[in-house]
Amino acid sequence: MNTGQQEILGALHNCIVTCNECFDACLSEHHVSSMAECIRLDRDCSEICSLLVQAISRNSSNIDVLARSCVEICERCADECSKHDHDHCKKCAEACNECAKVCRKLIA
């Protein structure tokens, strides 16, 4: 595994963990109904990142397709999390933006 792949896998892993933490924390917020879209996007983002990690590890021919989707979903999640003032949302937005940035390197 080269340094570029390590950077990408590291960003994906960080995004997965951070989105899952945000998802869990959102469920504990006082007005959880106002966090519904954030919760949905946290789950989508975590799942697409997980799928992309798996595709990279098996050298799938669909890496670029999944990377495009990952960039788009990470950006959506970052945008949504940026609307909230919770620390977990701020951390999630940062992780998603970083993940989108490094995943662009995978797009052929």
Automatic annotation (TrEMBL):
This is Four-helix bundle copper-binding protein. It comes from Exiguobacterium indicum. InterPro entries: Csp_YhjQ, YHJQ-like. It comes from the Bacteria. Pfam families: Csp (PF03860).
